[in-house]
Amino acid sequence: MCANILPTDITLASQNADPAKLAAFEARITRGEKIEPGDWMPAEYRKQLVRMISQHAHSEYVGMLPEGSWITRAPNLRQKLVLIAKVQDEGGHGQYLYHAAETLGATREEMIEALLNGRAKYSSIFNYPPLTWADMGMIGWLVDGAAIKNQTMLAHCSYGPYSRAMVRICAEESFHNKQGKEMIYRYALGTPKQKAMAQDALNRWWWPTLMMFGPHDSDSPNTPQLARWGIKTKSNDELRQEFVDETIAEAHLVGLTIPDPDLRYDEASGHWLIGKIDWDEFWRVVNGDGPCNKERLAARNKAHDDGQWVREALAAYAHKSKSAI
Amino acid sequence: MNSAALAAKLLALADDEYILGHRDAEWTGHAPILEEDIAFANIAQDEIGHAVLWYNALKDLNGDDPDRLVFFRESSGWRNAQFVELPKGDWAFTMVRQYLFDAAELVRLAETVNSAHRAVAEVSEKIRPEEMYHYRHTSNWVKRLGLGTEESHRRMQAALDSLWPRALQLFAPLPNEDELIAAGIFPAPDKLRAAWEGATRSWLTDSGLTIPTITASAADREQHTEHLAALLAEMQEVARLEPPDVKW
Question: What pTM was computed for the model?
Answer without folding.
Answer: 0.95
